[in-house]
Amino acid sequence: MVFSTTSSHSNILHILPTSDHHPPYDLLQHHPSLLLLSKCKSIQTLKQIHSHIIKTGLHNTPFAQSKLIHFSAVSPFRDLSYALSVFESVDQPNQIMWNTIIRGHSLSPSPISSLQVYDRMLKSGVEPNSYTFPFLFKSCAKARASREGKQVHAHVLKLGFVSHAHIHTSLITMYAQIGELDNARMVFDSNTLRDVVSFTALISGYFSERYVDDARQLFDEIPVKDVVSWNAMIAGYVQSGLFEEAISCFSEMQKANVTPNQSTLVTLLSACAHSGSLELGKWVSSWIKEHGLSSDLQLTIALVDMYSKCGEIDTARELFDGIIEKNVISWNVMIGGYSHMSLYKEALALFQLMLRSNIKPSEVTFLAILPACAHLGALDLGKWIHAYIYKNFKNISNISLWTSLIDMYAKCGCIEVAAQVFRSMRYRNSASWNAMISGLAMHGHAEKALELFSEMTNEGLQPDDITFVGILSACTQAGLVDVGHQYFKSMIQDYEIKPKLQHYGCMIDLLARAGMFEEAKNLMKNMEMEPDRAIWGSLLNACKVHGHIEFGEYVADRLFELEPENPGAYVLVSNMYARAGRWDDVAKIRTSLNDRGMKKVPGCTSIEIDSFVHEFLVGDKFHPQSKNIYRMLDEVDKLLEASGFVPDTSEVLYDMDEEWKEGALSQHSEKLAIAFGLISTKPGTTLRIVKNLRVCGNCHSATKLISKIYNREIIARDRNRFHHFKDGVCSCNDYW
DNA sequence: ATAGGGTTAG
Fold this sequence. Notes:
By secondary structure, the protein is mainly α. The chain has 40 helices and 6 strands.
């Protein structure tokens, strides 16, 4: 079918001589087969055209040969082994064919082999030209082959090619990319040939080695700056995280009357997205409209990213919906935008829509959606993704992808599967270790987390501040005061990591929960930053547990100062008074809450049944199965009562009066989710629930009993950690 | 009929 137009011409060309006398150039250029070659878009069509070329006898012409080699060696659909087979069939390849094959190798997974081709080229008596060396330097740069690069450099000097602009610049680029900035600079200085291009090459090198000031200095020396050099500056600043500088560089560029191009805008939008600069983002957006670039896909996607990261998720969605031909990247950006804004359900919904639209997800899709699965506890979907990755990306060693899976499994309550994924990884980075260590910590497996820490350091990996957050929280969950202290010291002394607020938070929590209030206070005095609400909150919680009312009141005042509008602090204090039986104070707190019109964050528990995440609030009656759920709840309460369960009323009073009247205790969101789980799954199935707040003491006791009465394993994630309920006991040993 | 600099939209 592809050749239907060629048959009428083939008669004419048959009269052309084929071997010794090549047909004239202009005739060949317009030969249908060779014209087709230029339009070819896949290796399959290329092969078909090739066989057609052989039939017409054109395969012996250097023109056809170099065209074939070109398309099979360096085009986007290249197939180097095919190119080599064509190349080997040529008797005496010319300079262009050799160069093309060398370039083909530079684009291949083993670019260094282009040097062997170069060797063969020289031995066959074909001279290199100014085209040859840039390809070779690109290969050396890609292979980080410093020694080989220098050998070729010596060749260039010997053959007198140094002053060729292309060779000069590619040499600078090579040294810059290998990280030998001094050599790059030497090449740059060794020549009077200093055009914008070579300047820009060196500037990018400086940026990649974080020599921002050198880059700027060099940039100021460029006599006539062009768009690319400005873009390199802006992109360099963005890469270095210097968004302010990137933005001011852009205004300089405009003062210099250089018109931005698409890359400028994309880079700028990325800077806005990372720094949250909505104002500039909007400005770029209107610039794009004014210049009629609104239909540009890349720009639109960059805008979607910018708007979603700057908090205007609805604007982002409108733009996304307006894209007529959505590609994977557009979906990824929008899904990632939702995840980034903690709109996990929306992320999940969009992902489902993507699948229904028959868009094949990419690795990045999963990097965007897995955190959403992790937060929602959407294990079924997470498992599906795992299977999909295993099938489609097994050979891609994307460490982040496997690390995201570890995190997802851990946060969905499957710590064993998380460990399996971790063990099956061929390569791990410190993020992978961190994910596993904090996963174990969340599940209260302190010993295993500590074991993993030594394994990590034994393998020569440097633990970072995140590793220690995992380790310290493992100690906190398990109440390992001394061990925690040792690691805290070791972090500072052996690993020279300055403790951050989070580390202090873990330690203060650890000490206070163990009743060591003096030590906790001392640590707070000695830290160089102000305690945040998490620290005061954990102190207040410890005061509640240990009945330290006086200190608790002091702590509560600090919390009120810090966040006067946060009802959470009032709830905690109310809890403390309730625990101590001081009901008058409880009432006072409640009145002041009501007077201020504050409502506590509603407790919300989700459970995934058949790949669908169901959410429940306290006393929720919106679920379609509500009647059945409440019938089950009644049964549960009766059985609980029958086995001697007495509700602990001290913890219920932090809820509003109305809820109390309705029996808020038995209608806590976690109990609704459990009741729904019991009626929606087969006997014996493990129930996994996720709660947005800490589980209350009453529900904790109730759930322990339910696990025994109904013979179910119940894995519950609360704000802080996991609780595995089984046979009437919880993995946290009632310490949380 | 082949080349040099920046990015890449995640």
